[in-house]
Amino acid sequence: MRPTPVRPSFATLLCLAGAALSAAQAPAGKPDAPLPNPAELMQRALADEKKLAAEQERYECRVSDESAELDSKGKIKKTETEVKDQFFVNGIAIERTLQKDGKDLTPDQTRKEDERVMKQAVKYSNQATAKKENDKGNQQMVDVMEAMMLTNGRREQVNGRSVLFYDIVPNPEFQAKNIEQRFAQVMTGTMSVDEQTGELIDINIKSVKDLKIAGGLVASLHKGFWLHIHDQPQPDGVWLTDLAEGSGDARAALFFHPYFRFKETTGDCHLYTTSATQVGQATPVKKAGSRD
After folding, report:
1. What tens digit of pLDDT does each residue of 1-31 get?
2. Pairing status of strand 260-271 against strand 148-158
3. How far apart, in whole angstroms, are the C-alpha atoms of residue 92 and residue 133?
4. For the segment 98-109, what is each residue's pLDDT rounded down to a tens digit?
5. Measured in whole angstroms, how far is the alpha carbon of residue 221 from the centre of its chain?
6. Is the Cβ–Cβ distance between 71 and 261 less than 8 Å?
7. At what angle do helices 38-56 and 8-21 cross, to 10 degrees?
């Protein structure tokens, strides 16, 4: 079974909740200018997140997935590729598969896929149902971020925009209450945020030691597990994830199947309504090192 890629909401909330926990105030940009108050930054970004659902619904993108199942020595046992169309309904990403392993779906597969996508679209057209799903995912991510904090903050100008950079470390004062928080306490990494919008640009996290819960029967996470996510602004200012990738051995519902590697790229995004106002060409911003 192929691993399920991390969704943009994971990265966004990782950024938001983590910002609230940071006590670091570092000089940047102007020598005497402190970084923005982390709590205020989080609140502004949360407000933007609530508006994002409606903005996303104007977009349809092409998604390419590459995944590999590995053995315990890192050798590839099986690979899979998919090409999909992605759209949003009340903030829920819905994907329609077009190709698998380089081949178009058969007519029968296409019919079944259309039926599946229609059911999802109808389901999440109900705002209460979509809100419940979003709230569940958001709470999981807030739980994760309570176990983490940001340090070594700094500000840099990147392509004419002010970008905040942080290190992500476990919160030594926090007592974990669930699996997600236990996992977060063995993770370190880096992240960057667009200061003007509060949107996540890039995040890289990895596990720095092994973790087993109930002897590995409930969940386990091996040292070296890593995730990298990058977001990109569209011409009208809407931020969408254009890259999500990772590799490692993790066994729990929130994460992945054992010994995997995946890379999901999203591009060719276009508006399928005419109500958007173009504000210019999107300019790429700095990515953290991608891992192959």
Report:
1. 333 333 333 333 343 333 333 333 333 345 4
2. unpaired
3. 8
4. 999 999 999 999
5. 19
6. no
7. 160
Q: Which residue has the higher pLDDT, 235 or 11?
A: 235
Task: Please report which helix (H) or strand (E) contains residue 40, including its range.
Answer: helix 38-56
What is the identity of the amino acid at 187?
Answer: M
Rounded alpha-carbon distances, angstroms, from residue 230 to 100, 252, 290: 24, 24, 10
User: How many C-beta atoms lie closer than 10 Å to residue 127's C-beta?
Assistant: 12
Q: Which two tokens stand for residue 203?
A: 């995040």
Please give the model's pTM, rounded to 2 decimal places: 0.77
Paired tokens of 248: 């490692």
Residue in the structure block whose two tokens are 């599946």: 116
**Residue 164 and residue 22 in contact, taking contact as beta carbons nearer than 8 Å:** no
| Cβ neighbours of residue 158 closer than 8 Å, sequence gap 6 or more | 285, 286
Backbone angles phi, psi at 161, to 5 degrees: -115, 150
* 261 burial via Cβ count (<10 Å: 0-12, 13-18, 19+): buried
Cα distance between the two ends of the chain? 21
Q: How far apart are CA 90 and CA 53, in angstroms?
A: 6
